[in-house]
């Protein structure tokens, strides 16, 4: 008689089958649609938070690439010890703004407020595009704009803020997207979740630098109807439906340089183009601008190298061997540089030994950038000794403007506020403080015009976007880097933005007529 064996249990279905599995998938997809923030942030028990008291900041990446990303508002977090002073000040001002609404002084009415985010890297490494010094000055400039908008207590009584209107007040939300901006997606998802409620996020400023990740973040913000104002974006192919910029474009940099270089004798106009070959919007469009504006200077004289900064550094970095040999062979006196500022010093070092190949003429390296000369600061003495000049088209010339030489009308009140807030003048040298101030100021100018016209306490993202295209004529923005105008036909670029030319060493001499964007 056969034994009665127990029937085998039915196999359990895969977890993803059935109603419970489908429900779990829906939750996962919803998290991904919202930016996947907590998927990056760990298991939710605080283990992967940057700090226990700032739940909106988490650690992302692995190994040496692990870094803090997310949003900081009223609780201070120093993404780097060198940022602590300014992040503490921003958090304190954000708390003061909240208290004016929730706990106004006796006899005072609550003061409405909205949020403006500063989306940018808050961490740095030796290979990141933005050094920590430029990140710090960016935050100082943005905080100065916030304080001017809020007439915060740190400003002296004699200093007129020069900012339109008094309300709503501004909370400056710091949004860290990682040193190479690769974590923009979860952070943009967080920001998109802040556009509703009583104190909505109405605009995003900063936007990092001109790399593919910036384009992607801009497009996602536009899908969420959020306007963005780039501070130092210059690549002509970084454009999006709701993206504005306060800097000149690379084409404008090249045109400003052309106006200056056309004053040279014809025999000194033989140029050589040295360009970074990586997938980087800034370097690619800077090369294109040189080709379009200087075809008679450059002709077919060109050579590539692989830069050292950013997320795309495949290949041998900073290889100027070919550039050195070709410039020696052609005896070129002009070098058109389309690369990141951190590699400029290596090019100077390479060309400083050109006497070994019989090139005994002075060389001018032409740059269209913001802060490239400052990033090459450790070769300033070498420039003099090797008869190399840097000629930079820039969005700012703070060294001259501090001395009241050709300063735009909006620079003086900015400088007074910057000093009132106990920031040293040396922090202005790279121009990042000025341009991030102007980025936040432009957002403030637009949102205050909305409330001034409608009487509503707080605008929304659509109101602010509409008003950004009306910032012209009587509504021009009196920015620190020059009066800025925007309309619906400018593709987000500013009209009338001055483009100063900086010459190192030796000052700018007679710069000739100042170029302004059209």
UniProtKB/TrEMBL annotation:
Region (Disordered) residue spans: 498-518
Transmembrane segments: 21-40
Domain of life: Bacteria
Keywords: Membrane, Transmembrane, Transmembrane helix
InterPro entries the record matches: Peripla_BP_I
Protein name: Uncharacterized protein
Transmembrane helix keyword on record: yes
